[in-house]
Specification:
globular; mainly alpha; Helix Hairpins; 275 residues; 11 helices
């Protein structure tokens, strides 16, 4: 056995998994579309490992995500669309093109004058280069190219960022918070009127405004919600633990008792060092 495998070994492994003669039946029946859910799941597992600082297992999660790229490259090779080398070549060319402050000659191994560049200027250049690329693809408009396949919170933030770049934005977060209060009032009215469809629309407006607040605070809305989910799981788990110690299930407790146990779990977290 080798001391350490390489990307070439991984490509060989993938080819063997997809080999009609002796390959893996599950891998052989997969398509571009069928493995998309796994790709999304693996990306989120990488994000979670980073957020909880599980660096011991991060390399494994990154490997799982890399395997998704390798899988797509094998499918592309089999169908004559592209191979792994073309994926790498396209990526390197794009990154060199988008970093003229690092590769002023436009060549990966060209000279670099090592002059300092303002970070704001780098961001402006980056967006200008991306806009040029979109135009070359025939994508026009400030919101062009924001893929519909993104999670809704992430896509909302990207759409808002694009609109902000052409001047359509609140000058500061106070206007956003006022808008959130306005949307809450409109949601209340829709709920009171019993109009479920309208209430759903108003709820969407409220969520969109909350994403806007996150953007102004420079907070990733997806990450913020994932953190909130973990906090809810942790606190509700503490509630269940207390009830199980008493030989009961949560459904056997009153809402008042559940609320009291929830508040106790919250208070316990705040008393921990660094909480």
């Amino acid at each position: 056995m080798q001391d350490q495998y390489s990307v070439e070994d991984l490509l060989h492994l993938m080819a063997q998994l997809r080999n009609p003669n002796g390959g893996c039946p599950w891998d052989l029946k997969q398509t571009f579309s069928s493995i998309v859910p796994s790709t999304i799941e693996e990306a989120y597992e990488v994000a979670e490992a980073i957020e909880i600082e599980d660096y011991e297992h991060l390399h494994e999660e990154l490997g799982d995500l890399l395997f998704q790229v390798i899988f797509y490259s094998q499918l592309g090779l089999e169908q004559g669309h592209f191979d792994f080398s073309r994926i790498v070549d396209t990526l390197v060319r794009k990154l060199v093109r988008r970093h003229p402050h690092v590769f002023p000659s436009g060549e990966l191994y060209g000279e670099n004058d090592s002059s300092e560049v303002d970070e704001a200027e780098i961001k402006r250049n980056w967006e200008a280069i991306k806009a040029k690329e979109r135009n070359e693809k025939g994508e026009s408009g400030a919101l062009a190219g924001v893929t519909a396949g993104l999670p809704a919170l992430t896509r909302a933030a990207k759409l808002q960022k694009r609109a902000s770049q052409v001047g359509f934005d609140w000058p500061d977060i106070s206007g956003v918070l006022d808008k959130i209060e306005e949307e809450v009032a409109e949601l209340r009215e829709a709920v009171k009127a019993g109009n479920r469809e309208h209430a759903g629309e108003e709820l969407g407006d409220l969520l969109f405004s909350c994403v806007n607040a996150a953007r102004h605070l420079k907070v990733d809305p997806e990450a913020a919600l994932r953190q909130c989910n973990r906090k809810f799981e942790r606190r509700f788990g503490a509630v269940e633990t207390v009830l199980w110690a008493d030989g009961r299930e949560p459904e056997e407790a009153s809402l008042q008792e559940l609320d009291q146990l929830w508040e106790r779990a919250k208070a316990g977290e705040k008393q921990k060092p660094g909480a």
